[in-house]
Amino acid sequence: MEEISLVRPDDWHLHLRDGDVLEAVVSHSAEHFGRAIVMPNLKPPVTTTAAAVAYQNSIFKALPKDTVFTPLMTLYLTDNTHPDEIKLAKRSGVIYAVKLYPAGATTNSQDGVTDLFGKCLPVLEEMVEQNMPLLVHGEVTDPEVDIFDREKIFIDTILRPLIQKLPKLKVVMEHITTQDAVRFIESCEEGTVAATVTPQHLLLNRNSLFQGGLQPHNYCLPVLKREIHRQAIVSAVTSGNKRFFLGTDSAPHERKRKESSCGCAGIYSAPVALSLYAKVFEEADALDKLEAFTSFNGPDFYGLPRNSSKIKLIRSPWKVPESYTYAFGELIPMFTGQTLEWLPSSSI
Ligand SMILES: NC(=O)N[C@@H](CC(=O)O)C(=O)O
Ligand SMILES: [Zn+2]
Ligand SMILES: [Zn+2]
């Protein structure tokens, strides 16, 4: 096959940041994706409907003219989020989900939740009422727990009990990294519980953190896992199961902050993500399943219409830039400097 035509994909997990970085990165997503679920982990976090509306306006402003891209906004859940905020959020028509960051789990999560069942039950009950999905960074934060086990233990101690308590709550487990998560998601009700999958967790295992030396640009959270986990995630997404859909988790951090004595977690994948997903599906001999993953399963889960326009991927090897340079610094894309097979072309 030399050309793949896809209904325009959406990105169901994206960090656009704000200020200079937002202006730099937003076109990379808008070029290939119709919509994106925009993460609220700014400084300060987006905890209110008013802040989300203002943030959405700044994204629209940063978009190049004549691009059609809709940022779907999210609220950052805290111990103090009031159930009325969920009603407001739903009524606003711009907020599509609420994000759970366990306090301390990842970038800008210090204002996140310290005790989900103790502090957030009334809010979660209101979310069921309002049919508002909960998006989850699924890792426990106990420093005693080995970092490679944090997702599995989160499933056992938080996620499974949550779903038992509130079986009607729509939940997306974000950026899954383990066979345990795959099995758990497969065991849940279709249409109620789903997962997003990043390009890095489909293409890399934990060896890539240390290949030939420390590789800070492959460091993200949840951290890359063993090869068996990567293979389980590839099998899940290429099987055509509707519970899995595209979420890049593209998370830009300036080069200096990645190449540092205490480097930030996050991989900048927006410019290459679509080519990388195509690579995964082609290598699994499952290109026929690519479009459902990129363009159907996400909107179907969120109860939104699928996009009406299309995009093409052409078999035309291209070299990923070594870096993108801006006034504030440099961003290093995933697969920096490597050659990829599938080139996304503009809308058709
Ligand atoms: N994935 C990451 O490693 N980093 C994300 C936060 C997140 O999604 O956990 C970021 O905002 O930088
Ligand atoms: Zn996360
Ligand atoms: Zn993320």
TrEMBL record:
Catalytic EC class: hydrolase
Record domain Amidohydrolase-related: where: 11-317
Protein origin, superkingdom: Eukaryota
Any Gene Ontology biological process: 'de novo' pyrimidine nucleobase biosynthetic process
Keywords, sorted A to Z: Hydrolase, Metal-binding, Pyrimidine biosynthesis, Zinc
Protein family membership: Belongs to the metallo-dependent hydrolases superfamily. DHOase family. Class II DHOase subfamily.
UniProt-recorded name of the protein: Dihydroorotase, mitochondrial
